[in-house]
Structure formats: C-alpha cells, structure tokens
Write a structure and sequence with these properties.
It is built from 19 helices and 26 strands. By secondary structure, it is α/β, with parallel strands linked by helices. The strands form seven sheets. Strands 1, 2, 3, 4, 5, 6, 14, 15, 16, 17, 18 and 19 form a twelve-stranded mixed beta sheet that branches. A three-stranded antiparallel beta sheet has the order 7-12-13, covered by helices on one side. A three-stranded mixed beta sheet has the order 21-24-23. Helix 7 crosses helix 8, helix 7 packs antiparallel against helix 10 and helix 14 runs parallel beside helix 15. The longest helix is centred in the first third of the chain and has 21 residues.
C-alpha cells in the first residue's frame, strides 16, 4: 500500500496558472510561488462581481485515535462535486509544523484525496505562519522595550498576558524567565511561548476580511494590564502598522490544487480550542465568489469546531451555511461504544449500537439547533461489514438523515460522487433556517450555559469563583457582548476526556476566562488547555528525511 506522500509525489500537477484560470482568477491577481502554488490578491474580492455559491461545512463526530478522515472527506467531496459537473472549490486550514513533526504527521488529506504539493503545504508553504510568528514576536519585543525605556503606560510586568510564539512543539519554552544579564539586557520577568497557531494574531488574521479590518483587530488585542488594572493594547504600543506590514502578503489566500486538479485555498490555521479552528474568512469568501460549491471544514468534532465555525466565524463574517456533512467511521463509533483500538477490525454490532448516539447527537445539533440540512458521510474502511454499514444507515434514517458511504481515500473523487449528489440534493431541495446557538446580547454566563446545555447536552455549568470574577471584570470592561469560545477536551462532549460516546447528566466546570479582544471572542477554559505542545517519545520528525535529489520521505 502506497503512503500518502508516495501518492502525492507520483501525481502530475497542473501548472498553477492553469489552476487559477480554472478557478476563474484573472492572471493580474495571481502571484506565483514556484510552479504549483500562488497567492491570490485579496483585492479580487473587491473587484469580483457579486455571485454567491453554496457553502458546505464538513465536520465530524467526537475524535478518537481510530481517526475520522475529515480533511480527506472534504477534499474528496469537492473532487466528487466536480466529477458530477459542479463547479467546486476547497477552503482548508494550513498545517502547523508542530503536529507535522510531532504525532499527527501531515494534514493535507490522505490517499487519493489530497491537496498538493503535499510536502510544501505541510512544511514552510508560502511563509504565512512565519509572518504571523514574526508579527507576534515584534509585539512582544515592543512591549518589553516600552517597559525598559521608562514604561510610560505604567504596565505591570506581573500582569503581561502577551506571550512569544514559535511554530514548533517545544515544551521547554512553555515557562521561561527572560531579561536576565543586567540592566542593559532588559527587565527580568516570567514569560513563555505558545505555538504559533495559538497566537491571537492567527485568530485575528483568519477573521479579518481586509487590511483595514486586520489593523482594527490588531489594535484591540490586549497585551497586559497597568498597575491601575486597565487593559493595555497593541494600539497603545503603536505596533499595529508594523505588524500589518509583516502580514500584508500573508493575508493573501494560497491557491493550490487537489490530486484531481480541483482549485483549493489553503490559508490560515487557528487552534480549534482556544480559537475558532477554521481557515481564513478571505479564503472562504473568495471560494464562494468563484464557485458554485465552496467546501470547507472546521476543527475537531462538531461540538467544538462546527460550533465555533457557526457561532463565531459565520457571525463575524455574515456567512450562512447551506448544508453540513458529518463524517464518521464505523471504527471510531465502535471506540465510542467501548472497544479498544486494538480490537476494532472484527464485526461488533453491539459496540457500534452503543457508540452511535455520539454521531446522532452531533447530527441532531446541526439540524435542530442550527437549522442546517445534513448528511452523514461514512468514511469506509476495508474492515467494515455490510451489517455494520446497514446499522449506521438505518439509525440515521430513523433520525431523518441519509448516511452515504464515502471511499475517497481509495478512489478519490469517484469515491465521493454519491456524497456529492446528496449534498447537491440537500442544497436544491431543502432550505436552511440557519440560527445561532445563542444571541450575543445575553450575559456571558448565559451564553456559556447555552452551549453546554444545547450543544454538549450537559446538565449545566459550574463557574469557579475566580472565573466568575473574571467574567464580571470583562463585562465591566465592555466585553460581555462578545461570543464565547469554549476550550475543553476534544475527546468528549463533556470536559472529561474519559466520558466517551454521548454522556448525560454531567456538569462542565469553568476554571478560567480571558478575552481575545482582537479576535472578538471571550475564551472560556474548562481545563488545562495546552498552548505549547511537546514532542512525543518517538516524534514523526525522526522518520522524515530528504535524499540527494531533494525528495522528501517519511512525511506521513
């Protein structure tokens, strides 16, 4: 069996100029980065005639170690749509180097449903993440320099909230002390690093629809507090113009292609926990303008990624989804039914029946809470039996939803044609009545409670006294009308990763609350969320190599 990278390296790619033409991007808006990548000038949005395609969200069940194949399904669906005669495009997040060199490996799809050039996309690509990291660290340098040069803003060094970042898993940098070595080398203080995708600049970058909006959002970012307990922003430090200069080219979406030549935007990649976990607004809007069907995805399961896509991104950008695809595998559903990963290959209808409520709850949320037509994509594995497939189809039908087999990993777009036809049917025959899970004028506590009860199906929320004080303070500062971005484990509907399947009767505990004022949401932490991952005992980096001809091996 060929690896993903072998399949990608054997593909014959079309020159990017041809892909741009296929996408309807005029040559004057295309900025090539070699033969197979290009930036598309964001001014194209201003100059394009108004034409709105259908927005298709691909989400998934609660993640398991068995894998779900959300990105692979997203790409294969777009290829399938083009195979049945529809003009489709993909909009995806860029992979972070941390997971690439850590545990996960590449993040550009898999099998015969990939975006290419796969090696470039998974490594430096067009340098967007480097630009975001540089802007983040410029702000950190200007903040510390302001304190060193006399601290006119009276910033309390003990209450600095802005951290430096690097796009790498490096646990050694989580907590550091810097500014050592005497007065000329800065002011000593405790500090730390986040991975670049966890920087608020990444979230700001992905939610900005123009250079002007980017600068407005950057200016609102809070970097710390004064001795008098007032927020200090990037605007106060006069850092916005320089940061925007570093980000101006990165803000242009990256155009690549799938293995079958479907145009694809791969742009931005915020954390799907402390941020909203979606590609850039600019890339999504551009795909909608250029195609009949824009297929995009959101991070983690539907309780995290889809909820944030719908309640944060769609609200901020004025987007309305036309249909949703909920990806599931029979293997993962059996894990939710209590079967260990090592015992998933044999038929087990009892375990599948026990795990199916996880899928059905996600589907119900999409349809009943958000009012979006949905289809279930069963990402097929060779070990799936006819009886197991029939059970999933029957249980989905009882909920009024079709389950469609997807074989895009093995067959590419051909394996996604049935799913594509059902997506088209949903768009043509069913009318979405899109609504949010909560309204932003509700108090922060009510918005948190709404997500816990309506999306997670929990019994309620417990807010610790320290977190309640933070909520009260943020409300007093004028941030109470922002959407909430709840950070919890991705492995359960609850805040306990051991509660798999569809748990009930649980209470979610809010431990910490902070504002991402530039991104425009309040982050609600229900546990210890790691913003700087570490490498595993045997990192994926140990398997990656390059030969004398520059050919990379081991990258997934």
């Amino acid at each position: 069996m060929k690896s993903d990278i072998e399949i990608a390296q054997e593909a014959r790619l079309a020159p990017i100029a041809g892909i741009a033409e296929r996408a309807g991007v005029p040559a004057e808006y295309t900025e090539p980065y070699g033969q197979y990548k290009a930036k598309v000038d964001y001014r194209l949005l201003r100059d394009l005639p108004e034409r709105k395609g259908k927005l298709i969200l691909v989400t998934a069940i609660t993640p398991t170690p068995a894998g779900e194949g959300k990105t692979t399904t997203t790409i294969g669906l777009a290829d399938g749509l083009r195979r049945i005669g529809k003009n489709a495009m993909v909009a995806l997040r860029e992979p972070s180097l941390g997971p690439v060199f850590g545990i996960k490996g590449g993040a550009a799809g898999g099998g015969y449903a990939q975006v290419v050039p796969m090696e470039d996309i998974n490594l430096h690509f067009t340098g967007d993440f480097h630009a975001i990291g540089a802007a983040n660290n410029l702000l950190a340098a200007m903040l510390d320099n302001h304190i060193y040069q006399g601290n006119a803003l009276q910033i309390d060094p003990r209450r600095i909230t802005w951290r430096r970042c690097v796009d790498m898993n490096d646990r050694q940098l989580r907590y550091i002390t810097d500014g050592l070595g005497g007065r000329v080398n800065g002011v000593p203080r405790e500090d730390g690093y986040d991975i670049t995708v966890a920087s608020e600049i990444m979230a700001v970058f992905c939610l900005s629809g123009s250079i002007g909006e980017l600068k407005e959002r950057l200016s609102r970012m809070i970097v710390g507090y004064t001795y008098a307990d007032t927020p200090v922003t990037a605007g106060d430090l006069h850092a916005v113009g320089a940061m925007a200069a570093l980000l101006k080219d990165a803000l242009k979406p990256n155009l690549v292609q799938t293995l079958e030549g479907t145009p694809a935007f791969v742009h931005g990649g915020p954390f799907a926990n402390i941020a909203h976990g979606c590609n850039s607004v600019i890339a999504t809007r551009m795909a909608l303008r250029l195609s009949e069907y824009a297929v995009t995805e959101a991070g983690f399961g539907a309780d995290l990624g889809a909820e944030k896509f719908l309640d944060i991104k769609c609200r901020a950008a004025g987007l309305t989804p036309d249909a949703a695809v909920v990806v599931a595998t029979i293997r993962a559903l059996k894990m939710h039914g209590g079967v260990p990963k090592t015992e998933l290959s044999g038929e087990n209808l009892a375990a599948l029946e026990a795990g199916l409520p996880n899928l059905l709850r996600h589907v119900s949320n999409i349809r009943e809470v958000y009012g979006i037509p949905a289809v279930v994509a069963v990402n097929r594995f060779p070990t799936d039996t006819d009886a197991e497939i029939a059970l999933v189809i029957r249980r989905c039908a009882e909920l009024g939803v079709r389950a469609v087999l997807s074989d895009v990993w093995a067959e590419g777009g051909a394996g996604g044609e049935a799913l594509a036809r059902e997506v088209v049917r949903l768009c043509e025959e069913e009318t979405p009545s899109f609504r949010y899970a909560y309204e932003t004028d509700a108090p922060l506590t009510d918005k948190i409670d709404a997500v816990v009860r309506r999306i997670y199906r929990g019994a309620g929320v417990s807010i610790l006294p320290a977190a309640q004080k933070q909520i009260d303070r943020l409300t007093a500062l004028g941030y109470g009308s922002l959407p909430v971005c709840i950070a919890k484990t991705q492995y359960s509907f609850s805040d306990d990763p051991t509660k798999i399947g569809a748990p009930e009767g649980f209470t979610v505990t809010v431990r910490n609350v902070r504002v991402s004022a530039g991104a425009g949401f309040v982050v609600v932490l229900t546990g210890d969320i790691m913003t700087m991952p570490g490498l595993p005992k045997q990192p994926a980096a140990e398997r990656i190599d390059v030969d004398e001809d520059g050919r990379i091996t081991g990258l997934f």
